[in-house]
Design goal:
Elements: H1 8-11, E1 18-21, E2 29-38, E3 50-57, E4 65-71, E5 75-87, E6 90-97
Antiparallel strand pairs: 1-2, 1-4, 2-3, 3-6, 4-5, 5-6
Amino acid sequence: MAERQLTIDLFKDKAGQVWTIDEPEAPPIELTLIEVEPLRNYAKLQREPFSLLFTTTGNFVLPQRTYGLKHATLGAMELFMVPIGREGDVTTYQSLFN
């Protein structure tokens, strides 16, 4: 099966929706996609660069790495996520696509 190209159009109507970290031998963790933002295309890349921001609640911060995620309509995919902020028990993570 060919890997689908992840584009901003795939995500832009998914803000506010829940994603679940879906990995073997790990409990499912729910994340909410809170922002889908285009980025400047300085390199004139074919795929427009964009950023996704997710939040999760709990007394933990997930380390920066690639996670297997599942979405109700998009299904399974892998995203590299970086924790970028924490306020109270809410942590924000970012995925960048250049």
